[in-house]
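Example record

The entry below shows one chain as it appears in the dataset: sequence first, then structure tokens.
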Amino acid sequence: MTAAVQVSVVIPMYNEERFIGQCLDSLASSTFPAVQLEVLVVDGGSSDRSREIVAGRACRFSSLRLLDNPKRFPGAAMNIAIANASGDYVVRMDAHTEYPPEYISAVIEELQRTGAAAVGGCCVTCPGAPTLLARAFALFAQQPFGVGNSRFRLGRGGAFVDTVPFGAFRRALFARMDGFREDLRRHEDYEFNARIRAAGGEVYLSDRICSYYYNVATWGRFLRQAWRGGYWNARCWLTSRPSFAWRHSVPLLFVAALVTSSIWGLFDRRSLYVLAFVGAAYAIAALISAYDVGRKSDWRIGLVMPAVFFSYHFVYGIATVAGALATPFARGTRPPASPVRPEATRNRDLTARV
């Protein structure tokens, strides 16, 4: 069996009982030959029914293994999976996501066609629950005003980009460069793709590939998502220079403009004009985007979108400051050694087909 494996699918998991079943069900419908596929679910110590659900789906796969991840977070999960993978290709998937039947075949074909070091597809964000707020949070992740120029979220594939969601790689790539950062609880995939590009490789976003991600459904989880995004982005920037992206810094600049003009306004009233200008410009942009959302989907959602935009951007910006301040005092900020290194030398020609 192992000798026939061509693709190793990797799914990091932690307390995913709501979604892991439907993720595996979508994978079981894949058009890719089952005998050439292995599925590695890497569990970070789930306390819910996640492991039980995975075990119950084992009969639907020729090769499914449940691995343990004592460090819990995705970077460590990826390194564990890569060390145990048998396939020539590694396809990272997310437990919150469903995949169409042709997904694996298409992503492997795109790796071969483009010669890129990493390939992924556009990601459609779906509501995590049948509620108005959950729909608003899902639509937020598909608006340029919400997520900037993130092409995979906006459905703009067919180009070489800075990052892709749930990337596919040749397994030999991991023998040529360091593994995933285990000290980053988020953005470890973006940081890894940044190192690929810094080493001369390319990251390709295909317009043939699409996945369906289920977003958070409550205000609390939405704001935690914003906090973690900003906090770990700052940690990522300051410890890996290639990972910086301007779109991730816009909330920080927005919050900095609000706070500094407010404080300086106590001493010089002219600064209040800056505050008024920044606030008005943001409000106009938010209202225009909210109108567009309401016109295309539901006017009730359009009414709550300004609050959704502002709460996410403000929390993200504050969290970026917190992450930057915490970084000098954090331990373990160096990338881990590669989990697979059969070669004696480190060939950095990542654009070569392997």
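Notes for this example: The longest strand covers residues 203-214. The longest helix spans residues 299-326.
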